[in-house]
Design a protein that fits this description.
Elements (H helix, E strand, L loop, with lengths): L1 H5 L2 H8 L4 H10 L2 H10 L4 E2 L6 H16 L1 H4 L4 E4 L7 E4 L4 E4 L8 H14 L9 H8 L3 H10 L6 E4 L24 H5 L10 H4 L3 E3 L6 H4 L6 E6 L26 E7 L12 H12 L6 E7 L16 H6 L7 E5 L1 H5 L5 H7 L16 E5 L4 E2 L4 E2 L8 E5 L4 H11 L1 H4 L5 E6 L2 H4 L3 E4 L2 E4 L6 H10 L17 H13 L3 E8 L7
Parallel strand pairs: 1-2, 2-5, 5-6, 6-7, 7-8, 8-9, 9-10, 10-11, 11-14, 14-15, 15-18
Antiparallel strand pairs: 3-4, 12-13, 16-17
Length: about 525
């Protein structure tokens, strides 16, 4: 132990940086020498995940603020923060009364000390008089987590990445949805700072912010930050689609946002079925208007999601990607990724649902994106029914990435190969991804005395082995046959692509997360 006390803090800090948070916690218990050094590591990227409405979560948020308040040297080094912020004040759920009840401020263990620290911060260090309003003081007094998040933002001047994800679970109607049933879930700055605001530049936590992430709509005062470059949010459309005033783009806002480079948006699967969207059409109109205010946008990632218990049932109208493609109107966009990996990870897909997704019609055209170089999307967005209905690709496309391929893909690629010089002269690479293969791989059943195997996401080797043993059988329920029935034809297929300068790359593994590379 004496040896540890003689080691300089700089050397200890270099060692601790190589350890995980669990190991750092253990070292803090071993020696007091590590407490100061450990704080430098543990609080550099604070993260409060999986919140629930109990005193423990609220106390953890208060202790985090107290640490940053007592250690200004640490608060200045905080670069990234990930916090789940509730919109309710000091409330708890009573199982006997089955309603949300107001909790007395003294009921939370240690809360008076944390509250006194917050009041001291408001009077001594909060340079922004906006945080010293009466409404914000009342929110702190009644244990509002959102108000403490606002104070954390005022105490971290060098923050670059921020994640605020309010709880919007449908199983918790008293939390977020029920009070705003007629409006889209969103972040309201008044809940974090006590009063409506028009500009956030003068708040230290927003002065250098480069990335902002949330699972709801984001107010315009955050989107219009001059330093913001990356934005991620979700277009919730299970409400009536009314856009709140803090979210809507001001009518007088004609100036563009040149700093934006990357935008990530989560979209519900209903966007593929315009006939049953209804009122949420206004949300997609808002998104289309937002893209017009981002003239320098280069990368757009759209993640199609669905609810936990959402079961795909064939609607009256057939789904298509045309409506989604028409929303995206941009001249400088270089990368467009339409991802469906979240649909597989959140809940399993049944065989009938997977075949139903295959019936989606492709987008009509992407000619309205003249600068697009990379396009990644599910196979059904590119063509339908053996290539009879195809999407018009952008003229300057260089890289295509197809998610969840099946044997029909090769016929479509051969058609692209024959018209390579005229329609896609700059195409240089084609990649395939496997997502739904986890739900479909090896699924074999008997129908009409004929064994049928779902081949949508098999690897090339697995597909050749199966087709080699079952040359006289149908390749899938639609009766479509693959043209890669042996190694010779596969080699000829690859040689044909190489002849026109196209590289082929297959990813048999299941992809998780955003497809950024």
């Amino acid at each position: 132990m004496a040896v540890l006390n003689d080691i300089p803090n700089e050397l200890l800090l270099a060692i601790v940086n190589l350890l995980g948070q669990g190991d750092v916690f253990c070292l803090c218990f071993v020696s007091r020498k590590f407490q100061v050094v450990g704080q430098d590591v543990l609080y550099r990227r604070p993260s409060l995940k999986n919140p629930n409405d109990d005193p423990t979560t609220r106390k953890a948020l208060g202790l985090l603020f107290r640490t940053l308040f007592s250690r200004p040297d640490i608060s200045e080094r905080v670069k990234k923060m990930q916090i789940m912020g509730f919109d309710r004040t000091g409330m708890h759920y009573s199982p006997f009364q089955r309603e949300w009840c107001l909790r007395h401020p003294q009921s939370c263990c240690g809360w008076p000390d944390i509250r006194d620290t917050a009041m001291e911060f408001l009077t001594q260090r909060a340079t922004d008089t906006m945080l010293q309003n009466v409404s914000h003081v009342d929110l702190i007094r009644y244990e509002s987590q959102s108000a403490f998040v606002g104070m954390l933002l005022a105490a971290t001047p060098n923050l670059e990445s921020l994640t605020i994800a309010p709880t919007i679970s449908k199983s918790d109607l008293g939390n977020y949805i029920f009070p705003r049933l007629h409006t889209a879930p969103h972040i309201d700055p008044a809940e974090y700072f006590g009063s409506p605001i028009r500009q956030l530049d003068h708040i230290p936590g927003f002065s250098r912010l480069k990335s902002f992430t949330s699972n709801v709509l984001i107010p315009w005062v955050i989107i219009s930050l001059p330093s913001l470059q990356t934005l991620k949010f979700h277009l919730q459309n299970y409400c009536f689609g009314i856009i709140p005033s803090v979210i809507s783009i001001p009518s007088h806002s004609t100036y563009p946002l040149p700093a934006f480079k990357t935008l990530r948006v989560g979209v519900d699967i209903d966007v593929l079925f315009p006939g049953r969207i209804g009122a949420p059409h206004r949300i997609y109109a808002y998104f289309k208007d937002l893209l017009r205010h981002l003239p320098k946008l280069q990368h757009l990632f759209i993640e199609i999601t669905r609810e936990e218990a959402y079961r795909l049932t064939p609607p009256n109208n057939r789904g298509c990607y045309t409506f989604l493609a028409n929303i995206i109107q941009h001249e400088t966009l270089e990368t467009l990724v339409i991802d469906t990996s979240n649909m597989v990870t959140r809940s399993p897909l049944w065989d009938t649902e997977l075949r139903f997704l295959r019936k989606l019609r492709p987008a009509e055209t992407f000619q309205h994106l003249p600068g697009l170089h990379r396009l990644c999307a599910p196979q059904e967005m590119f063509f339908y029914v053996d290539g009879l209905v195809m999407c018009e690709l952008p003229p300057r496309i260089e890289k295509l990435e197809i998610i969840d391929r099946d044997p029909d893909l090769y016929k479509w690629i051969e058609m692209l190969q024959r018209h390579h010089g005229g329609k896609t002269p700059m195409l240089r690479e084609i990649r395939t991804w496997k997502d739904r293969g986890e739900a479909k791989h090896g699924f074999e059943r008997e129908e009409g005395g004929t064994a049928m195997l779902e081949l949508d996401c098999l690897t090339l080797e697995e597909e050749r082995q199966y087709l080699g043993k079952n040359k006289n059988r149908r390749a899938n329920p639609g009766g479509r046959m693959s043209n890669l029935e042996d190694t010779t034809e596969h080699n000829e297929f690859l040689k044909g692509l190489e002849k026109v300068g196209i590289k082929w790359c297959a990813h048999p593994e299941y992809h998780r997360g955003w497809r950024t590379a």
